[in-house]
Amino acid sequence: MGENKMPHIQLPENLGIRYAVLPGDPARAERAACYLKDAKLLAFNREYKSYSGLWNGVPVLVMSTGMGGPSMAIAVEELRKIGVEAAVRIGSCGALQPEAGVGDLVMVEAAVRDEGTSLGYAPLSYPAVADHRLLTACEESAREAGYRCHTGIARSHDCLYRDDNPAIYEDWARKGVLASDMETAALFVVGRIRGMRTASILNVVAACKGNVAEHIGRYVDGETLTAQGEEHEILTAFEALTKLEG
Ligand SMILES: O=P(O)(O)O[C@H]1O[C@H](CO)[C@@H](O)[C@H]1O
Ligand SMILES: O=c1cc[nH]c(=O)[nH]1
């Protein structure tokens, strides 16, 4: 009989890797894997592209999760089933506050659940919060490396191109929300319920009150500050996860 593989991520039940770094974009997974020793492509099914490798001698997995809460929730469910104990999302985001500049990192301490996926797991009164130990490890790793970063709340949503986005952004900005993404709330809620430590580091690719589509386009074209922010979030996530060892 063949090994038992998870239906979507196509990774085997007995993979035996405890730590995962989760970019949204499969191309970012490939770029992140380049920093690992003995990096090996494991699978690429749908949006889930995965690599294994070593960081500080510790086995880690890098796996893309695609865009939006549903594909993140499936990733967390299947990763937990194969024994992943802690995961750090390395995403991109739009800034809702002027102090978060392009290429800065946002360490998400909690997420506004303005998306549908997490509601399938718990009512809105349930908080979407990072694992305290993992968040602290992320903050320490970024600080030690000297990266520009901010800790705060992100708003996770399901709709990048809403006509009323400017008013929505302004409203959440007035409430102190720092950044906007699509997956962090689902990661935090599903991870917490299934017993996985989670954290989320977001690279600011769209400035506050900027044109989101234009900014994301520049990121895809490899604009320097966002490429630098991406490198910073990758290195921070590897370092933070391996701080959990011992
Ligand atoms: O760059 P990733 O990690 O995909 O994150 C952000 O980018 C996508 C939108 O461009 C959404 O998935 C959003 O959350
Ligand atoms: O503004 C942005 C940029 C990336 N991702 C988002 O969800 N929003």
Automatic annotation (TrEMBL):
Reactions that this protein is recorded to catalyse: uridine + phosphate = alpha-D-ribose 1-phosphate + uracil
**Assigned keywords, A-Z:** Glycosyltransferase, Transferase
Q: Which residues form the Nucleoside phosphorylase domain?
A: 18-210
Q: Which domain of life is it from?
A: Bacteria
- KW Glycosyltransferase (keyword) present: yes
Query: Could you say which enzyme class this protein belongs to?
Result: transferase
Which EC number(s) does the record attach to this protein?
2.4.2.3
Q: One Pfam family of this protein, by short name? A: PNP_UDP_1
The entry sums up its family as follows:
Belongs to the PNP/UDP phosphorylase family.
Q: Which PANTHER family match?
A: FI09636P-RELATED (PTHR43691:SF11), URIDINE PHOSPHORYLASE (PTHR43691)
Name this protein carries in UniProt: Uridine phosphorylase
Supply the source organism's classification. Answer: Bacteria, Bacillati, Bacillota, Clostridia, Lachnospirales
